[in-house]
Amino acid sequence: MKTFLHVGCGPLYIDPVTKQPSRPQGFDLSSWNELRLDINPAVNPDVVGTMTDMSAVPSGSVDAIFSSHNIEHLYPHEVPIALAEFKRVLRSDGFVVITCPDLQSVCALVAQGKLTEPAYISPAGPIAPLDILYGHRPPMSQGNLYMSHRCGFTLNVLLGTLEAAGFSKVVGNCRPNYFDLWALACVSNVGNEQLLNLARQHLPEQPFDLTQTNPAAQDMQQAIQDVLVLAQTSQRDGNLDEAQSLFLEILNIEPRHAEANYGLGLIEASQKSATDALPRLEAAVEANPAVEQYWVTYVDALMMSGITHSIADVLALGQQHGLKPETAQALAGELAELLKSK
């Protein structure tokens, strides 16, 4: 079985539905062992270390590296050092997947005067451009300065930096709606088709739009839609176990599918708790913020979970997308009544 090094792994997250450890896209439990590395010993990693000093990991010992929102925490002069460490521990046919903030899309919001307005909702709460540029303010205010950002990238700069570090083939994309960049870089000079196959497996979106020219992609989208109809029918009929299984089938193929995440969130809220449903409902809002009902259900779940401190920011962000002002006002009234009753 292959091994991937999860750099900056953070705490181990167990999916409440599958009861299995959550994995980055493409690194499934049946094919990959996970080696967890983090600077913070409190998250119980397999290896305590930093991106610039992974000396506890032998050279040429891992098949892949996954690094999510870590590289921006380095100073610019440290980035080549970290990438050299990545390349050192990878096998000759290995690759690295990196995701980090996209400064180009973030700065577009700054240019619109929205530096401190929420740009999106994360499991840690609303995130503003200021947080993306310099680091998430709440944990830093509590002394966790690991969260500070010290450098940044656009897509061209990220891909160029990987090439300059000696990676032979690179591919990537930017997702302005999510304010992030994704890149995949191979140690060896693989063919373009192999590079694209790896990108399809490990990047959240295709690096190129193949849906108009690839009949297989069109067939897959139709199959997903067919399964979705079956899942929603089962849910309406009260067959929740069957609906849950069908929604999970969709999410195994398309993890950010809005309707599947929303449907599964409703099931988790009814069978478990609103708190258990929050990650699914957040995913639905992020994937399709134009749907008002997603915002309403998400805010209701926050209130039922007792997570009230961020609701005002969520309502403000929702009104920039699909949440009507009168609906936001009604939800704010519900929140006021809830707080008054405590």
What does this structure look like?
The chain has 342 residues and is an alpha/beta fold. It has two domains: 2-202, Rossmann fold, CATH 3.40.50; 215-341, Tetratricopeptide repeat domain (Serine Threonine Protein Phosphatase 5, Tetratricopeptide repeat). It is built from 13 helices and nine strands. The strands form two sheets. Strands 3-2-1-4-5-9-8 form a seven-stranded mixed beta sheet, sandwiched between helices. Helix 7 packs antiparallel against helix 8 and helix 8 (240-253) packs antiparallel against helix 9.
Q: What's this model, at a glance?
A:
The protein is of the alpha/beta class. It has 2 domains: 2-202, Vaccinia Virus protein VP39 (Rossmann fold), CATH 3.40.50; 215-341, Tetratricopeptide repeat domain (Serine Threonine Protein Phosphatase 5, Tetratricopeptide repeat, Alpha Horseshoe). 45% of the residues lie in helices and 16% in strands.
Q: What distinguishing features does this structure have?
A:
342 residues; Rossmann fold; Serine Threonine Protein Phosphatase 5, Tetratricopeptide repeat; 7-stranded mixed β-sheet; two-stranded antiparallel sheet
The CATH superfamily of the largest domain is: Vaccinia Virus protein VP39
* Order of helical and strand elements: EEEEHEHEEHHHEEHHHHHHHH
Give me the side-by-side strand order of the main sheet: 3-2-1-4-5-9-8
CATH architectural group of the largest domain: 3-Layer(aba) Sandwich
What fraction of the residues are assigned to beta strands by DSSP? 15-25%
Distance between the termini: 53 Å
What is the class of the largest domain in the CATH system?
Alpha Beta
Give start-end ranges of low-pLDDT stretches: 207-214
Shape: globular
| Rounded average pLDDT | 89
**Could you tell me the number of beta strands?**
9
Structure annotation, total helices: 13
Measured as a percent range, the helix fraction is 40-55%
CATH fold description of the largest domain: Rossmann fold
The structure class reads: alpha/beta
Total domains: 2
Strand count, sense and barrel status of the largest sheet are:
7 strands, mixed
